[in-house]
Structure prediction request, 675 residues.
Amino acid sequence: MAVKKKTPGKQAGGAAAKSGGAAKDPAKAKRTGESHSFQAEVSQLLHLMVHSVYSQSEIFLRELISNAADACDKLRYEALTDTALLDDDPALAITISIDRKARILSVADNGIGMSRQDLIENLGTIARSGTRRYLESLGDKGADVSLIGQFGVGFYSAFMVAEEVEVISTRAGGAQCWSWRSDGQGAFDISRVAKTDENWRPRGTAVRLHIAPKSKEYLDTARIETIVKTYSNHIPFTIEIIEGGGKSAEVRRHINAAGALWMRPKKDITDEQYREFYAHVGHQFDTPAHIMHYKAEGRHEYTVLLFVPSQRPLDLFDPQRQGRIKLYVKRVFITDEAGLVPSYLRFVRGVIDSEDIPLNISREMLQNNPIVAAISKAVANRVLSELKKLADKKPDVFSTIWEAFGPVLKEGLYEDMERRDKLLELVRFRTTASDGENRSLKDYVADLKENQTAIYFIAGDDAAAIAESPQLEGFAARGIEVLLLSDPVDNFWTTTVLGYDGKPFKSVTQGAADLENIPLLGKDAGKTKPAASKAAMAALIAALKQALGEKVSDVRVSQRLVDSPVCLVSQAGGFDRGLEKILGQQPGGGGGERPRILEINPDHGVIASLAKAARSGGGGFAAEDTAWLLFDQARILDGETVSDPADFSDRLMRMMAANLDAAPGAKPKKAKAKA
Ligand code: ADP
Prediction:
């Protein structure tokens, strides 16, 4: 750790060091500045920050340092094609200074800087996409301010500790220095900083916080140093701290480890250091479930430091489905938008640093670069093989990962044909036999019943409801395990994945159940004869078909029902019931309903009696009412509403009345006309 005295005028850190000066009178800038209103969402966010009583307000420093590091990364990248940008001040660094008398804490960098327009857009008028989501998330579960960085709005956390925030910035290569200033109350001022002003800077940004009395701890050097070491020790730029507020007795100290952590040998890195770096690089604050750190030295040379989180990042289900792995070339940050891993691995965070990609490559050219493609392919394979290893050797860890990212990994089943088999080894399911535990397909296949040739599943959006579906009864009676699929993605992969280990996936709500060759268990064993005769069932089926018309595509005797009287299934070769429901809700998805098959249970007492009545054609068999009530009942069992509530109610009342009339002692009365 270097300790050196500095005299004014000979500033080793160049621009960064300028920030240590005494405070400029805030009131004066306000008078000369041009006032802008914050966008409504930003105002809302600021209000929250200003009034925050969050105990971990210290995270503001992590956010400001992270922004400063990004600014240095951006300049280093731009300087690849325009070396003049770095000429005057090549050592990129972050400088923290404390002026206790003026109550100012400043975090400065000599990175890319911001123009007047950048200041207006980035810090106030164009509400960033993260703002709304962040506010929503706070609404959901109380203010967890620490998540702010994940939403790309970390800068505003400065208002947790400052009465006023001033940002002084000069865009690299630009001629003008600008000041942005706000007390977080709805507006900010923009004004030009004259070259003669002591806060003027040749390049980069200084964020000057006028610390509120309640937060005076942040004017204490030791406290700041501790925070930097806790959260930002391994950002890859030097962080210096200056004490003395611009006086000749200024002391500059280098306080972080700096350097690219990923280049250090694994054995020299502690868990804590990995974790701190993960928080920085991934904007995630959980403990990673798994860390992959290795150097590839085959045809291409590159270093990989990747983290599999243990908790879901909040952007996991964003429509862009973008990964955020940072691509570096020889320690120079290039982009975090190179899409280095397939979308279904987007939860993996970290850094890949290549030795072979040409440094002057433009971001646009990366898409087609064969080295990037080769690295991406190898890394995706490696991630999957590490996950497999975890699944085999550390099932607890794998289970944490699966609970968090299972639905995302399953997207790969229909998106990545090349790795589908590997993914099929990883997928885990709740099943009718799993008792809360996750089962693999290997487990499932090992427990197949005699003559069972398919892997059965049921899909729907409510795990508890699908487990109660009548369609499962015939499977339960035979001890056949059924996968319970309740992630929206399940409706899609089950239509494209052909099978596992030669066994096709088959929905229990679709097509014929084909269960006759699989023996019944326990109380149901030996029960082969239906309670109603074939002829009686045929009469009932004919009556139901006629009454329901085009509402159903067929009415038939069920193999899959044991206790329930009826259920609905979809046709073989079409979509499974779960997917039909989803498609029915989408615009252009076929809308409305597709005709389904009504299955009836000949073993059910009421069905058997109805069948007899239908056969004998005796009085009291109301075909229309019976058909519609059975159909509506099947809909209800499927979690749907009845087709026509008023009609349903009338029919039910008629049936009840008829039943009362038939009761012994009741005055006989003719059944009311059928609808
Ligand atoms: P994030 O950094 O996650 O994008 P912030 O709210 O922290 O969100 O910052 C908003 C934007 O302001 C940044 O994306 C960046 O463009 C700009 N910015 C913030 N701090 C700096 C800085 N020190 N140098 C340059 N630009 C900055």
